[in-house]
């Protein structure tokens, strides 16, 4: 089975990868809502990858998930260091 490029994806699912990447970048810019943005970016990215059918993997979704998880780890590390007296 030949896979089509992600850019040929039609409908609203074509925007899930770029939305995931945009939300992940926004989670680094807006620190007070970062965990909500991280969760939304991960959900959009996973849905984009899970619903790809005959299209290749959406690399913007993979990048969005990676950036979002990096932000989550960073936020947890900052929180953990703030607990230490």
Describe this structure in words.
Keywords: Membrane, Transmembrane, Transmembrane helix. The chain crosses the membrane at residues 21-49, 61-83. This protein has 85 residues and is an all-alpha fold. The chain has a domain at 57-84. Helix content is 66%, strand content 0%. It contains three helices and no strands. The chain has helices at residues 16-29, 34-50, 59-83. The model has no long low-confidence stretch (mean pLDDT 84).
Q: Helical proportion?
A: 55-70%
* Shape assignment: elongated
Q: Count of DSSP helices?
A: 3
Uncertain parts: none
Structural class: mainly alpha
Overall pLDDT score = 84
Count of β-strands: 0
Distance between the termini: 58 Å
SSE series: HHH
What profile does the largest beta sheet have?
none
Give the C-alpha Rg. Answer: 15 Å
**Strand content bin:** under 5%
Keywords: Membrane, Transmembrane, Transmembrane helix
Transmembrane segments: 21-49, 61-83
Note the main attributes of this structure.
3 helices; 85 residues; single chain; mainly alpha; 66% helix
Q: What is the compact description of this entry?
A:
The chain is built from 3 helices and no strands.
Topology record:
Blueprint: H1 16-29, H2 34-50, H3 59-83
Helix pairs in contact: 1-2, 1-3, 2-3
Transmembrane segments: 21-49, 61-83
Keywords: Membrane, Transmembrane, Transmembrane helix
């Amino acid at each position: 089975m030949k896979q089509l490029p992600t850019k040929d994806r039609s409908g609203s699912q074509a925007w899930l990868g770029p939305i995931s990447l945009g939300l992940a970048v926004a989670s680094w810019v807006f620190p007070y809502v970062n965990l909500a943005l991280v969760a939304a970016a991960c959900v959009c990215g996973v849905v984009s990858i899970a619903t790809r059918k005959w299209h290749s993997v959406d690399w913007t979704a993979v990048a969005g998930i990676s950036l979002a998880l990096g932000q989550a780890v960073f936020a947890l590390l900052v929180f953990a260091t703030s607990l230490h007296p």
